Amino acid sequence: MVSIVTTISRFTLLIWAGIYMLDSFGLMKRNIRPRRENYLYYKQRITILIFMINAGFVLFLNTQDITYLILMVCEFAFFQVLFFIYTKLYRGIERTLVNHMAFLLCVGFVIQSRLSTKTAIRQFIIASVSLVITAFIPLVIRSIDDFSRFELLYGVLGIGLLASVFVLGSTEYGAKLSLNFGVVSIQPTEFVKLLFVLFLASGLYEASQSNNSERIFRIVLIVALIHIGILVLCKDLGSASILFVVLLIMTYYYKRDIRILLVGFLSVSAFLVLSYFVFSHVHSRVLAWLDPMSVIDHQGYQVAQSLFALGTGGWFGSGLFQGMPNKIPVVTKDFVFAAIGEEFGGIFAIILIFIYLACILMMMNTAMQVRDEFPRYIAIGFAVCFGFQVFLSIGGVVKFIPSTGVTMQFISYGGSSLLSTMMMFSIFQGITIRRSREEEAL
Known about the structure:
mainly alpha
């Protein structure tokens, strides 16, 4: 009986995800009727809850562990609170983005529950605390008339956090990543990404409004490169590459000069070649990327197990608790996409990529509609930061690029990553509210 239900759930979970994805792109159509729009929003929320309940019962049936049912009830309440906060307390938010955040969180809850109930409980607690913290951010953004004037604070705080990691940080997988306070571990880099975007947005906006724009731009560029330089010294090349791409795209938008992209591409290429010879962990990851089977006993084991998992899952997946994702090292964090591909299937993994793509498109669409330059810079920076991290995370798992060790937003286990990403989306919602108020004032 359990095996029959699990087999059927391979397709029902895929159906719910497919319905959600189709509705997501249906909401992107121009001139959609308000009644139809509201219907799709509510339909998406119901689909998320059905998906969660479906997966929760399958997890319970396979383990007979009441913990899964308790988690399911708690998660149901969590999503009700999330929807209430963002749809009832705030006017003018981007409701599609709220639903996307909820869907990705739901997938994260399910796959973490499958991999480890201990990490699943922690992830749920972290998500709940993060929701409480971030619920007030749109209100703060809406209330402050000009938060571009805190440019110095953003820059100093960002460099200070990175310097603390460089001096006091513990080394994991060849790089200094976190600060440990007893049983609590924090990765300040996750929050520096937000500060970095805010700093660049403030600096470039000031430069665009000043008569001394070139001088201000050079100062902004130097401070930005100091951020990236400290990350390189910490050997956290994944985060360094994210900040560099954000700097590159935001600078291109400011200058509107295609040569910036060319110089940036050449600089990245030269740095990657140099990193291969300078950093031993980069050398190991490149070897694992080029031919994981030849070094499967050492450097290539993680990548090889990831590819085995994806291949075993096929298009429709093996079903919850029917695969062996725990054989993949660090599967709850860096390689969670491989676990999803194995037990949910390749089609589900592609749907997940499309949902991430929908988030990026919504961010860029909002960026183009904002009238003020400063929030536009922020929206562009967040979209690039979010999108490039998705690319690095999934690309490393499927062996498209060498593994960089960055997390998959909303889904990977990790408090700093989850909180910072929810903060990013909340700041973005604050920008959306300000845009709605501007439209109403016209």
